[in-house]
């Protein structure tokens, strides 16, 4: 059976490698245009390579910068099935050694012809399923359109091997066609395996190294934007994974933190149930109300005779206005929403202010729903990706604004995360965070239990602000907004009770009670002074003294 599969694949690629042209490699008649557009896009996603251009590494205070440099000094493997000619040269410019593998001799010959002069590339004609290298040989494995030509069994064996070949902390980048064929080139037969992104996620993160103590965790996964732009095709998907130690007790019984999020708090049903109470597109406090700038409504207070504002409305206006308005967004600015959920705030910012938004969330359920909504919203200004904020790497000064709503409660090392935000921002860039916080210790047993069960890591608003200052942010405002939180919770509770019948059309009585009880418990924990909510604003200084 395994031999038969290998023979079929060989036959398929013999048919499509006769002239070793880019059209053959990409199996598409628009290959030249696609190739020209997507190459810089793919390259910009490769942290080691991109990072090498970042001379800021010399500052020496960012761990990743050291990694980039050591990557250059060591070895980088290029384990690719196709398009070697398009990527090998670029990778070889940056790494000290590149091993380029393909099982079609024609492609290898053409690659050697184009890139052999560089002197640091080993060209290897080999079937990847038979390939082997010693453990801890490489820092980086790059693979483009390879896994879709392997069966699940072959892929599992290869992933296990790759986990061995990579050094601890090393990266695997790969890209595949998902769901169905993308290229328009005629094929007499097509043995390609078109998996869903979820299937790749599952396969890649469920395998462990032979010793059982290492596995892959997701850094980033997203659709290749070039294919969306040119072919309206979202099904070209790429991934960046990192080899990390497996921690059996680390994620409340789940192998990875992503699995914990997707299966516990953010199952698809759980998300939609939250959305019902927070409002369309949102899974955090106040939904659109705490996101947008809302004009004040005048209310006629009975007995006064005049049209005046109710005090509560004035207060609530002041709160509301502060959120996005404080960022002074300008069309064309780049915003990253860390823990974007299902994207309501991102569509709002893009449509209202003309900014370009990257919504990043580690939960694949969240991003799946966000992408479904993006099809309806039809705004090219918003992109989504599955990404782990604690592992994701961007070139310095990539964004004007870092925005994050009720997400960082999930993240352990706030200082390390804020250091990342600092590097991602342009000088003068702005940060806006809302997050669950806590009161001073000791906490009540109910709050202790709640925090433990959710796996949250909470600080007081003051401590939170100190983390930001320590990293180098200026104009830090750490505001305790618990009062506003309580107001919003009461409103959400009342609204849910009002729409009970409607709620029960989509969800069960148990779901309804879960929400009602959950909100009452939040209010109780706030009344004890334990649960608090913070709003944080800060800026990266315009001038950095190095
Ligand atoms: C309460 S939801 C808020 C979603 C969204 N910000 C909103 O306001 O609707 C928190 C989000 O944080 C995401 N998250 C948790 N840890 C993350 C990480 N390390 N990187 C990226 N997202 C993360 C979760 O998957 C979840 O979608």
From TrEMBL:
Q: Pinpoint the Methyltransferase domain residues.
A: 335-429
Q: Is Transferase among this UniProt entry's keywords?
A: yes
Which principal EC class is assigned to this enzyme? Answer: transferase
- UniProt keywords, alphabetically: Methyltransferase, Transferase
EC no.? 2.1.1.103
Pfam families reported in the protein's UniProt record: Methyltransf_11 (PF08241), Methyltransf_25 (PF13649)
Chain ranges of the Methyltransferase type domain: 86-174
Q: In which pathway does it act?
A: Phospholipid metabolism; phosphatidylcholine biosynthesis; Lipid metabolism
Per its record, the protein catalyses: N-methylethanolamine phosphate + S-adenosyl-L-methionine = N,N-dimethylethanolamine phosphate + S-adenosyl-L-homocysteine + H(+); phosphoethanolamine + S-adenosyl-L-methionine = N-methylethanolamine phosphate + S-adenosyl-L-homocysteine + H(+); N,N-dimethylethanolamine phosphate + S-adenosyl-L-methionine = phosphocholine + S-adenosyl-L-homocysteine + H(+)
The entry's protein name is phosphoethanolamine N-methyltransferase
The record lists the lineage as: Eukaryota, Metazoa, Chordata, Craniata, Vertebrata
């Amino acid at each position: 059976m395994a031999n038969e599969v290998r023979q079929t694949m060989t036959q398929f690629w013999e048919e499509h490698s006769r002239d070793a042209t880019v059209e053959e490699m990409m199996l598409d008649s628009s290959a030249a245009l696609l190739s020209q557009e997507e190459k810089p896009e793919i390259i910009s996603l490769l942290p080691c390579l991109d990072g090498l251009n970042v001379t800021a590494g010399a500052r020496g205070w960012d761990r990743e910068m050291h990694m980039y440099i050591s990557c250059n000094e060591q070895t980088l493997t290029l384990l690719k099935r196709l398009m070697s000619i398009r990527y090998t040269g670029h990778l070889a410019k940056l790494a000290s050694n590149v091993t380029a593998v393909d099982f079609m001799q024609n492609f290898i010959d053409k690659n050697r012809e184009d890139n052999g002069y560089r002197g640091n590339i080993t060209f290897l004609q080999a079937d990847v399923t038979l390939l082997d290298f010693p453990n801890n040989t490489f820092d980086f494995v790059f693979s483009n359109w390879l896994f879709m030509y392997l069966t699940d069994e072959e892929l599992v064996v290869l992933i296990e091997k790759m986990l061995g070949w990579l050094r601890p902390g090393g990266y695997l980048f790969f890209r595949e066609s998902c769901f169905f064929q993308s290229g328009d080139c005629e094929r007499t037969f097509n043995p390609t395996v078109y998996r869903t992104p979820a299937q790749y996620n599952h396969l890649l993160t469920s395998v462990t190294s032979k010793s059982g103590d290492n596995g892959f965790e997701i850094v980033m996964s997203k659709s290749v934007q070039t294919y969306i732009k040119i072919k309206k095709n979202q099904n070209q998907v790429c991934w960046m994974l990192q080899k990390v130690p497996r921690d059996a007790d680390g994620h409340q019984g789940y192998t990875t933190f992503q699995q914990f999020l997707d299966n516990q708090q953010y199952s698809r049903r759980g998300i939609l149930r939250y959305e019902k109470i927070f409002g369309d597109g949102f899974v955090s406090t106040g939904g659109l109300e705490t996101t947008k700038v809302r004009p004040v409504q005048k209310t006629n207070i009975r007995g006064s005779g005049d049209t005046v504002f109710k005090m509560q409305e004035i207060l609530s206006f002041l709160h509301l206005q502060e959120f996005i308005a404080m960022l002074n967004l300008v069309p064309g600015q780049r915003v990253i929403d860390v823990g974007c959920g299902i994207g309501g705030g991102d569509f709002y910012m893009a449509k209202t202010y003309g900014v370009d938004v990257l919504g990043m969330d580690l939960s694949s359920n969240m991003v799946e729903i966000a992408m479904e909504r993006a099809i309806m919203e039809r705004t090219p200004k918003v992109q989504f990706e599955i990404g782990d904020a604690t592992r994701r790497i961007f070139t310095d000064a990539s964004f004007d604004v870092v925005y994050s709503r009720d997400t960082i409660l999930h993240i352990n090392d706030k200082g390390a995360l804020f250091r990342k935000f600092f590097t991602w921002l342009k000088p003068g860039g702005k940060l806006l965070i809302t997050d669950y916080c806590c009161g001073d210790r000791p906490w009540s047993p109910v709050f202790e239990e709640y925090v433990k069960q959710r796996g949250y890591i909470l600080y007081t608003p003051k401590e939170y602000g100190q983390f930001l200052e320590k990293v180098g942010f200026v104009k830090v405002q750490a505001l305790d907004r618990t009062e506003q939180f309580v107001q919003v919770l009461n409103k959400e509770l009342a609204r849910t009770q009002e729409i009970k019948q409607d709620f029960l059309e989509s969800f069960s009585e148990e779901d309804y009670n879960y929400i009602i009880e959950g909100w009452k418990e939040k209010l109780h924990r706030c009344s004890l002074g334990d649960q608090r909510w913070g709003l944080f604003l800060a800026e990266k200084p315009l001038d950095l003294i190095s």
